[in-house]
Amino acid sequence: MFKKILIAADGSDHSIRSAKKAIYLAEQNPDAEVTVVYAIDGQTSKEDILHHFDKSVVDEARKRRLQPIEKILKEKGVSYELKILQGEPGPAIVEYANQRDFDIVVVGSRGLNALQEMVLGSVSHKIAKRVKAPVMIVK
């Protein structure tokens, strides 16, 4: 089964649902390792800094978005690590995934940024097209 699982997350309901599916996959293999990535684009980063001024507060707010996923991982006893990536989410996640040997990448069909999905194309679509590993898109 799958040993190295990447979850692309942003704290949205879709990313939490996709994380639950990924965690289910991880539970099938006692040696599974899960990496949860959250990509921050330049605009979001600027807005975070303008609203909070303090980098430690910004970092804590970003981690808080992933807390529901982290809570489930802990409850299920799944080995995991969290990674915050800088850059446009689609390309940043693709680059991260392709530089490592993941068995599967799991992503929600939609995220927090509705405008990006309508105008530029969805992050999940970019990931599915460009990641070398199998990709599961969860609705």
UniProtKB/TrEMBL annotation:
Pfam families: Usp. It comes from Cytobacillus oceanisediminis. InterPro entries: Rossmann-like_a/b/a_fold, Universal_stress_UspA, UspA. Residues 1-139 form the UspA domain. It comes from the Bacteria. This is Nucleotide-binding universal stress UspA family protein. Belongs to the universal stress protein A family.
